[in-house]
Amino acid sequence: MPIAKEVLEAQEKTNDLEFFKERVKTMPLLIEWANDEIRNNKEVLLTAVKVDGGALEFASDNLKNDKDILLAAVSQAAWTGCYASERLRDDKDVMITGAKKDGQILYYASERLRDDEDVVKTAIENKPIIFKYASYRLRGNKELAKLAVSKVGKAVLGYLTPELQKDEEILGLI
Predict the structure, then answer these.
(1) Residue 61 and residue 53: Cα distance in Å, rounded?
(2) What tens digit of pLDDT does each residue of 107-131 get?
(3) What letter does residue 115 receive in the DSSP assignment?
(4) Burial, 142: exposed, middle or buried (Cβ in 10 Å; 0-12, 13-18, 19+)?
(5) Could you give the 3-state DSSP secondary structure of residue 23?
(6) 135-153 residue pLDDT tens
(7) What distances in angstroms separate CA 166 from CA 148, 153, 170, one per listed residue?
(8) Is the pTM of this model over 0.90?
(9) Nearest Cα to 152, choosing from 114, 103, 112?
(10) Which are the contacts of 16, defined by CB distance < 8 A and separation ≥ 6?
(11) What is the pLDDT of residue 7?
C-alpha cells in the first residue's frame, strides 16, 4: 500500500488501538495520527521507537519521561534525545546509550552530564567535534582533549581550555 494511502487510513482510524499496534511495526511514524490515548500507550510507542526513534516526537509527555521508551529511541536514533524530559536528559544510562550511537546527544544532555567524564568520552569517541558541548572543566581534561584532537585535529582546538591549546603534546597530535 502506498504511503499516502497508509496516512489516509491512519487519519480515519485515529481511535483504533489495534490498527496502530499493527501498523507501527512497519510504519512507526503513523503514530502521528493516533489519538492522545494511543500516543500514551507504552506498548505501541515502544514498538514504534524500536523501528524508528523519530516516532518519539509524537509520544505523550508522559512517555517522553519513560526511561524504557527513551532507551529504545536513542538506541535507534540518538538525536531523539531532544525529545527527552528534563529528568531523562539527566539520566546517565540514557545519555551513554545514545552517545554510543551518536555523540551528538551530548548537546541535549543536562549540564551535570556534560561534566561527566564517562558521558563526554563516549560522545567524543564517535563525534569528536561534540567536545565543544562538554563542560569547561572537561574541556581542560588532557586525556579527553587528546582523544578529540587525535580524531579531528585542530577542528576541536578552539574548544580546549587556553592551557591545552598551547600544550605541546596536544599540538603534536595535529
Answers:
(1) 15
(2) 999 999 999 999 999 999 999 999 9
(3) T
(4) middle
(5) helix
(6) 999 999 999 999 999 999 8
(7) 15, 14, 8
(8) no
(9) 103
(10) none
(11) 66
132, 114 in Cβ contact below 8 A? no
Angle (CA) 151-156-161 rounded to 5° is: 125
**Distance in angstroms (rounded) separating the CA atoms of residues 145 and 133:** 13
Euclidean distance between CA atoms 104 and 171, whole angstroms: 25
Exposure of 28 in the CB half-sphere (CA atoms within 13 A): 20
Q: Which of 96, 51, 90 is nearest to 71 (CA)?
A: 96
Contact 74, 98 (CB under 8 A): yes
Nearest Cα to Cα of residue 122 among 156, 170, 130? 130
